[in-house]
Amino acid sequence: MEASCAVHGNVSPRSRRTRLRVLAAAILALASAGSWAATPDIEAIQAKVAEQHETSVKRLQDWIALPSIAAEDLNSRVGAQYMADMAREAGFGQVEIIETDGKPGVFAVLDAGAPTTVGVYFMYDVKQFDPAEWSSPPLEAKLIERPGVGTVMMGRGAVNQKGPQSAMLAALHAIRDAGQPMPVNLVLVAEGEEEIGSPHIGQFVHHPKVRAALADSIGVFMPMALQGLDGEVTVSLGAKGVVELELVASGEKWGRGPAKDIHSSLKAMVDSPAWRLVKALDTLVSDDGNTITIDGYPTAPPLSEAHRRMIAAATSRRDEADMKKLFGVPHWIDDLPWQQANERLVSQPTVNIQGLVGGYTGPGGKTVLPHRAAAKIDLRLVPGMTRDAAVAALKSHLAARGYGDIEVNVTGGYDPTSTDADARLIQAQLSVLRDNGLDPLLWPRGAGSYPGFVFTDPPLSLPAGHFGLGHGSGAHAPDEYFLIESANPRVAGYDGAVMSYVEYLYELAR
Amino acid sequence: MEASCAVHGNVSPRSRRTRLRVLAAAILALASAGSWAATPDIEAIQAKVAEQHETSVKRLQDWIALPSIAAEDLNSRVGAQYMADMAREAGFGQVEIIETDGKPGVFAVLDAGAPTTVGVYFMYDVKQFDPAEWSSPPLEAKLIERPGVGTVMMGRGAVNQKGPQSAMLAALHAIRDAGQPMPVNLVLVAEGEEEIGSPHIGQFVHHPKVRAALADSIGVFMPMALQGLDGEVTVSLGAKGVVELELVASGEKWGRGPAKDIHSSLKAMVDSPAWRLVKALDTLVSDDGNTITIDGYPTAPPLSEAHRRMIAAATSRRDEADMKKLFGVPHWIDDLPWQQANERLVSQPTVNIQGLVGGYTGPGGKTVLPHRAAAKIDLRLVPGMTRDAAVAALKSHLAARGYGDIEVNVTGGYDPTSTDADARLIQAQLSVLRDNGLDPLLWPRGAGSYPGFVFTDPPLSLPAGHFGLGHGSGAHAPDEYFLIESANPRVAGYDGAVMSYVEYLYELAR
């Protein structure tokens, strides 16, 4: 899951005591209305969460000690087995490892005999790491004091995504061990390739028995620590799609220029693949770099009025100057005002250069004529576009412009994903967040990307999203952490995160 | 000195015995014509060269053990002192270290009381190296058998330029120790910054006493191992100029885009310095990458008939198919035939991309919008152009096209340099080469670059070139070597290289 780019305003959440009263009242109302769930003893569950705190924290630490990294072909099978065992211990009765052409997925069903079924999307893999860059060993998951934040657990995967996922599992332990009714049936899909772009998520999720189980659900959510340091939460209704690819110009494919790096003086008689790359890139965007000029590329649909209103509401609460300072950006594209810049962020597809690499890249210069140069590109896609169609348009554009020799090496990508604000999965989130004294913002779609399309696209066509209180930081970076004991009453610590899943599951059962 | 790009044909050199006879006859004729030099006993000098072989080889090994590397601020002062001591031991009576704003130069005069004075250009610095990449420790200068080549000395600086330079010094030792007359006065200028582009060569060479000493000379040559593996030699009448520079686009200088790498999803609202670099680069050359389109850039003067004839003669002896195979180039620019491709090589200025570097350059992708991207560029200059004028034209072009924020960071460069084929410095080379049974080719100008302009431009306006038999390879690369005992009678070993300097000095005295 890519990092969120949202900056939140401050609100005062109500106390834990208040929101438990609100939730208990809601559930009483639910029970008296003849709904399925027996009245749960929320205070008993909370007491169980507190009682199990050490065990739950230890479970997270043990999980972090076993990193599964698909890119390094490290611990994927043992990680899947570990995930399966954890699911079983948390009460999933049917647990299966599903093979794919890549790393295996873990499929599990907790049948509570409830009328409502909810899908849960986990990843058991983590991002690569270099221990030398960390201030605390990344697999030791030590508890560390972080001034102004609280006690955090520092380790690879702490927030992305083992911390929030372990909190969700701890919620299941607590509900069961407090002798309370499980409010919904759960279908768990845990993949092991999220950090390499989920290349086999379709194979896994569309496995007949997985798809059949999910088809009965009201939607799928991924546990996530959604709180910023101010406690505030933005509920996103989807995400742009993305294609990551390399454009490579080479003498070999071109049939001109050199087949290896040669002395730069030969430029006077030899063609240059690096110049060819520059010339091909030049055709992809307008002179300001901001409008896509790929022939036949889909245009973005206009923003809906509802989405425009969401953006207006959110931008009015976000500080433009803070954002500009955070990113070191003095002007948005075209000097757009804050709200229009956010509308552009939500609505526009992009062609971005992530990196340029060719020839000599060290300090100073080196007199070579490189035989190869590459641009690392990401395309962000909005609804109506697909990964495959975007790649096809790019390829046919290059061919039509005479650059058919430029390789288009796609390394990963997702289609865009959207969920309706009215979906129960979303409304239940808003309800829990408000019960916790928060004033959640809605956001049409994150500009980052995740493989939610596998749930929201046909044949499943389910709502999908992320949920969870709690806070963490440093996904993909050194010193990744997940908050365990919060110094700020507005921000949930570990037990608060666990209770947010308890509350969400009961809310989804309504 | 950049690597040569010439490929030589084969000819049969006459034997050493024959050429000694030829040289002795020439010198006898010279003496009888009333020239200054007493008749030298060339066989006595050759015997001394053989006798001093071990000492000379040891001197080179000791020199290689002390690398001076300006880029690493390593051993420059001690290297200059070492150079000064070697000059003194070789018979230079006046030896001085000349300070510059960079590394010191070594200036030395050997006053033989001769009517002819010859300048000699040395570099006492070497290129950086990584011992891990070498098959033999680069500072140990071991003698190693190289099949088909002979016994070579492997070490950093072996061929670039300590080997040839030490052979020149060994020639001076042998002439003196054989009791023979020194045929010419010598003015030595040894710089310590050649490998970083000679940034202070002007300061050193134009120091009043250095300039005054050189002004009396008939020209300046640099010792160099000019023989390919077939023994053949090309005499170059100069070199293109070069400017090495980086073009840098950054959010900071642009005042748009981010001041640090940010998440790539933000491309939809933030400008991209990487795209800006691509768009600016695009304006520098034609769509095929081969014609310079910098506004107001000087055009190349047409080739002279004499130069065209030299190129025709040389290309008729060089194998086009071999060259294409060597470089992995299936077609020259515009599918030019061999001779025209070489005319282009000699006559045309270039804008080459040495390297592209920006944002994420590792394996796979990374979802960043980079705050900075750079192109490493070299401009090759032909006569009529200067480094300063080329840089000024580039800067004013960028400013006029609205890219005034793109930094033009010049890291080094030389003006072009040319010497007339009729110069005594050149004719003496041809004479010695022919006396050695070789059939040297003339070449209008090398497409590589060296700081000869400091000698050939006003105020000195001297001929300048390179000379020396012998062979080596791997300049700037691992496993650099200089040939000590040759397996091929057509190629000079160490003593043969020494004798070539003996012969050249006597020839220059005629």
UniProtKB/TrEMBL annotation, chains A, B:
Task: Name one process (GO BP) from the record.
Answer: proteolysis
Domain Peptidase M20 dimerisation, residue spans: 260-402
The cross-references to InterPro entries, in alphabetical order and at most eight, read: Cyt/Met_Dipeptidase, Peptidase_M20, Peptidase_M20_dimer
| Keywords for the protein's UniProt record, in alphabetical order | Hydrolase, Metal-binding, Protease, Signal
Record keyword Hydrolase present: yes
Q: Which GO terms describe its molecular function?
A: metal ion binding; peptidase activity
What are the boundaries of the signal sequence?
A: 1-37
**Gene3D superfamilies the UniProt entry points to:** 3.30.70.360, Zn peptidases
PANTHER family (UniProt xref) = BETA-ALA-HIS DIPEPTIDASE, CARNOSINE DIPEPTIDASE 2, ISOFORM A
According to UniProt, the name of this protein is Peptidase M20 dimerisation domain-containing protein
The opening ranks of the lineage are: Bacteria, Pseudomonadati, Pseudomonadota, Gammaproteobacteria, Lysobacterales
